[in-house]
Each structure stands twice: as structure tokens, then as C-alpha cells.
Design a protein that fits this description.
Elements: E1 10-11, E2 18-23, H1 28-32, H2 34-42, E3 46-51, H3 64-81, E4 87-89, H4 101-114, E5 118-122, H5 136-152, H6 159-163, E6 174-178, E7 185-188, H7 193-201, H8 204-210, H9 215-231, E8 239-246
Parallel strand pairs: 1-7, 2-3, 2-5, 3-4, 5-6
Antiparallel strand pairs: 6-8, 7-8
Helix pairs in contact: 2-7, 3-7, 4-5, 7-9
């Protein structure tokens, strides 16, 4: 039998200055692509985060009114580790985010505010590439982000945004989906991997209920393992992968 051919991943497009990452929850980006974000901000690129929820339903032992503000603080501290200072929360309810007009409008407004060339989101498909089922929040936000990119550039879809002073922005050139089971591109994780570890560790309250393992051991093992596995398709370099949709 012949060995299957492994398709090598392409380097991410580099011709951009501003990126906007749109995900559902605190820690989605830290599990997905913060090593890439650290490398990009080191290069002088601007990256902003928009989160649909505050992750307030994520810890069983904490009521949402306490959990939401705590996870928001941890997310802001986490973003700062990789050079991101702009972090916005859209205020949708954790666990019951609905794909629809309201979500598309909110994300389109964020795209118009930040005017990025690159938009990043998380896996929008039903599974993580096999039998591991994705969450409804991830699916809804990922799909709405893909759609909102076009919405942001069309003044007639959400004319109320223009009335609020948010002029159409049709300058998004790529949407990059982190955590995809069908990646096409990658970023060398080496320069940003240590900061990615520290960034995820800022979500300490969540990590402490997620695993009984030492948080740093767990985080380092998780992020390093994924980066090294991805590197098999990226010239042997640890990598963060993306499925890139061009426009």
C-alpha cells in the first residue's frame, strides 16, 4: 500500500495591518490561536478581540452574575499578554447564542468599527472533525462572522449602522477559521508559544474547574501538543493552523 500524501499548509497571508478576532467565549482564542496573535503583534500589526458572551454560564459553581465579570477580567488580562488591548463584549447570553439577524448585525457593526483586512473566528462546523460535537455558541458565532463580513460592506443590509455613523467596510480580504479540521494555512507558533501558554493561564478560575491537573502542565501540554502535530504539515515547525477563506 502506498502512504497517503499529506498536504502541506501554506503560510498565512502577510499583506495586512489590522485584524479582528470574533469568537463566542473567553478562552476561545487562547485555545485556538493566541500564539499566532503574539507573533503578529510583535510585527506591529493591530489585533482586536470581540466576544459574543462573557462566558458567564461556564462554571457550575459560580452564578452568572459573579462569573461573567470575573471571566471578562481574565479575558482582558489574557489578551494583554499577547499584545491585544482592545477587547469588546457584545452581551449575548452564554450557552444560548442564536445565529440570526441580531448577531450578524452586532458583528457587522464591530467590523465597521475596527475596519480590519483579516477577520479571525473559531470552527463554525458541527464537529471538531470527527465524533467530538461542537457547541451551538461556536457554530452560531462562526457562521455569523462569515456572513457579517459581507454584511459589513453592504450599506443596504443594516442601514441603521450607517445612521449610527458606522460607514460600510468592504476591506476584509480574508476570513481565517481557527480550530478547523480542514486547515489550509499556518503560522509558525515558535515565537509566540510561551506567551500563548501564559495567556491561557490567565483563565485560571476556569482552568481550575476544568482539570484536576496542574494548570501550567495542562496548558503547556495541550498547546505544545497541538502545535507540534500541526507542524508535521508545516515544514516541521510548531504551528497554529487556519482554514482561510478569501474574498
Amino acid at each position: 500500500m502506498t502512504e497517503p500524501v499529506t498536504t502541506q499548509l501554506e503560510p498565512m497571508p502577510a499583506d495586512w495591518r489590522r485584524a479582528l478576532a470574533v469568537v463566542a467565549h473567553p478562552d476561545d482564542l487562547e485555545y485556538g490561536c493566541s500564539a499566532a496573535v503574539a507573533a503578529w503583534t510583535d510585527e506591529g500589526r493591530e489585533v482586536a478581540y470581540v466576544l459574543a458572551t462573557r462566558g458567564e454560564a461556564g462554571i457550575d459553581t459560580l452564578p452568572p452574575a459573579e462569573c461573567g465579570p470575573l471571566r471578562e477580567r481574565e479575558q482582558r488580562a489574557s489578551a494583554a499578554v499577547v499584545g491585544v488591548s482592545e477587547v469588546e463584549f457584545l452581551g449575548h447570553r452564554d450557552g444560548v447564542v442564536e445565529y440570526g439577524i441580531a448577531l450578524r448585525r452586532d458583528i457587522a457593526a464591530a467590523i465597521r468599527r475596527h475596519r480590519p483586512e483579516l477577520v479571525i473566528t473559531l470552527n463554525h462546523r458541527d464537529t471538531w472533525g470527527g465524533v467530538a460535537w461542537n457547541t451551538p455558541d461556536h457554530v452560531a458565532v462562526g457562521r455569523a462572522t462569515l456572513d457579517a463580513v459581507a454584511d459589513a460592506g453592504n450599506r443596504w443590509i443594516f442601514p441603521e449602522l450607517t445612521e449610527r455613523g458606522l460607514e460600510p467596510w468592504d476591506g476584509v480580504r480574508w476570513v481565517a477559521v481557527a480550530g478547523s479540521s480542514s486547515p489550509t494555512h499556518a503560522v509558525d507558533a515558535t515565537p509566540g508559544l510561551e506567551r500563548a501558554v501564559r495567556s491561557l493561564l490567565e483563565h485560571r478560575t476556569y482552568l481550575e474547574v476544568l482539570t484536576e491537573e496542574d494548570p501550567e502542565t495542562y496548558v503547556r501540554g495541550f498547546l505544545t501538543g497541538y502545535a507540534e502535530a500541526a507542524g508535521e504539515r508545516f515544514g516541521g515547525r510548531p504551528a497554529v493552523t487556519f482554514e482561510v477563506f478569501g474574498r
